[in-house]
């Protein structure tokens, strides 16, 4: 499943964060692993996205897919766990990846960049009412507190943690509850105006599951 759309507009304040620009302009696979970091302060704003910071002259992506190519290998919901062999709830989707660049799907703030025995190297990004998680990375390029754009390379896919093979484990949460990432990705990739995306990210929604 592949979504390709052209989208415009982005937050001007993010353009001044030098470290994020560097991630997109250097040979990213040669960068070192970021040490474990967690944002300790509470995110109190409804969203990091505000049309006040999105001048029309900024031709930057509003949204991005987490990988250049989307190939689903395991869906959202209950399944037979590939390692444990029992029925467990799968709180995200697994996407095929081989040493692939992993992109932030929206602008936002990195709240966790760490390692876990199950999900391996992972990054969590807050987008307001929504939060995305990228797991089993071989390398992480961002740390907690970093502002990222849609399309910022945040790491490289891998097979860290408890896995049977290399892939990206992608989670989307709405108000702290896991939702099906596929309708979410479809929704954000069809938005072509910053006001529409602001509305989607800041208002309660019941049609993303």
What does the model show?
Helix content is 13%, strand content 31%. The chain is an alpha+beta fold. The strands form 2 sheets. Strands 1, 2, 5, 6, 7, 8, 9, 10, 11, 12 and 13 form an 11-stranded antiparallel β-sheet that branches. It has a two-stranded antiparallel ribbon with strand order 3-4. Strand 3 and strand 4 form a beta hairpin. The chain starts with 17 loop residues before the first helix and ends in a 7-residue tail after the last helix.
Annotate the secondary structure layout.
Elements lengths: L17 H8 L11 E2 L33 E3 L2 E4 L6 E4 L2 E4 L4 E3 L4 E9 L3 E7 L3 E11 L6 E2 L4 E5 L9 E8 L2 E3 L1 H10 L3 H9 L7
Q: Any low-confidence stretches, pLDDT <50, length ≥5?
A: 1-29, 40-58
Based on CA inertia axes, which overall geometry fits? globular
Tell me the major beta sheet. Answer: 11 strands, antiparallel
Structural class: alpha+beta
Q: Mean of the pLDDT scores? A: 76
**N-to-C terminal Cα separation, in Å?**
17 Å
Order of helices and strands: HEEEEEEEEEEEEEHH
Question: What is the count of structural domains?
Answer: 1
Instruction: Please report the first level of CATH classification, the CATH class.
Output: Mainly Beta
CATH architecture: Distorted Sandwich
Helix content range: 10-25%
Cα-atom radius of gyration: 16 Å
Q: With helices defined by DSSP (H or I, 4 residues minimum), what is the helix count?
A: 3
What is the strand tally?
13
Q: How much strand content do the residues show?
A: 25-35%
In CATH, what is the homologous superfamily?
Answer: Glucose Permease (Domain IIA)
The CATH topology turns out to be Glucose Permease (Domain IIA)
